Amino acid sequence: MHQENTRQYDIRTVAAFKKTNEKWGGLSNMAGGFPVVVNGLPMQSVEALYQACRFPHLPEVQKKILAQSSPMTAKMVGKPHKRQSRPDWEQVQILIMKWCLRVKLAQNWETFSNLLLDTRGMQIVELSNKDGFWGAKPVEDNIYAGVNALGRLLMELREQIILYKKEHFLTVAPLNIPHFTLYGQDIKEVSYQDSLIIEIKQLNMFPE
């Protein structure tokens, strides 16, 4: 997806999201309530996971990003290091985002799949004031334009959910790209069962 793939959207007829507390806010990577576990490491959002994947050669930066409870804070922690992003970031960022969304789905199946299916028949659009790549920006009343890369990846995932059974989505293979690592370790296959780590930790917060 490149800038020449810009499209226009009438936000009155689409599943649009900007704030996480809105109807379709759970589609945002900034939404809470969608924790994931990768390589045994619990993290509060796929935004944190996505940002950490920028810096496979900087495990200390990854640790700081993944330690954040807020998705926005996780993004901000990585911002000062943006120039140190993996050199092929522009080429792999879409693949990594697609993988992150699959992880979010695998480990939050009921909530996330139902939310995506509720948008059937509508285009999904992330609204933004300044990001015309991942989202779409206002150009006139109710009309937004942009590549809307995140929205298009979500629509692609929605169509796959319609086509395939649940079992197809409960494991996610690692990407076949160089240096796909967390804390210096290769990222392994992700499973819905990995998310049980979070549930066990939550149960341990309430001793008998």
From TrEMBL:
It comes from the Bacteria. It catalyses: 2,5-diamino-6-hydroxy-4-(5-phosphoribosylamino)-pyrimidine + H2O = 2,5,6-triamino-4-hydroxypyrimidine + D-ribose 5-phosphate; 5-amino-6-(5-phospho-D-ribosylamino)uracil + H2O = 5,6-diaminouracil + D-ribose 5-phosphate. InterPro entries: NADAR, YbiA-like_sf. SUPFAM superfamilies: YbiA-like. Pfam families: NADAR (PF08719). Residues 17-161 form the NADAR domain. This is DUF1768 domain-containing protein. It comes from Vibrio diazotrophicus.
